[in-house]
Amino acid sequence: MLNTFRIVALLEGLSYLFLMAAAIYKRLPGGDDYYVRLLGMPHGLLFVAYIALAFLIKPEQKWSNKVFGIVLLASILPFGTFYVDKKYLKS
Question: What are the transmembrane regions (predicted)?
Fold first, then answer.
């Protein structure tokens, strides 16, 4: 389960960064929202999977409420999931 969570965390973090880049591109002259629409749904699914897996893996990892809060907060911060992987998920 930990490896699955690490993979989802990586993909969620990458999809978030790509979505932010697409949103910036959309604002440029001549930019359109095609990439935002293309990346929005996969990112949303990965976000939900990240949150659900965090709840499932919490007892296994014996996270305190503070650590669990950091893990959840990381899902909405750029590069947050990469920090969680390095700090809390690597064995």
Answer: 7-28, 34-55, 67-84
What are the φ and ψ backbone dihedral angles of 51, each rounded to 5 degrees? Answer: -65, -45
pLDDT tens, position by position, 16-48: 999 999 999 888 888 788 888 999 999 999 999
Two structure tokens written together for 54? 């965090």
Query: In sequence order, what DSSP letters do the residues of the chain get, joined into one string?
Result: -HHHHHHHHHHHHHHHHHHHHHHHHHHSTT--SHHHHHHHHHHHHHHHHHHHHHHHHHHHHT--HHHHHHHHHHTTSTTHHHHHIIIII--
Instruction: Enter the tokens of residue 65.
Output: 């409420």
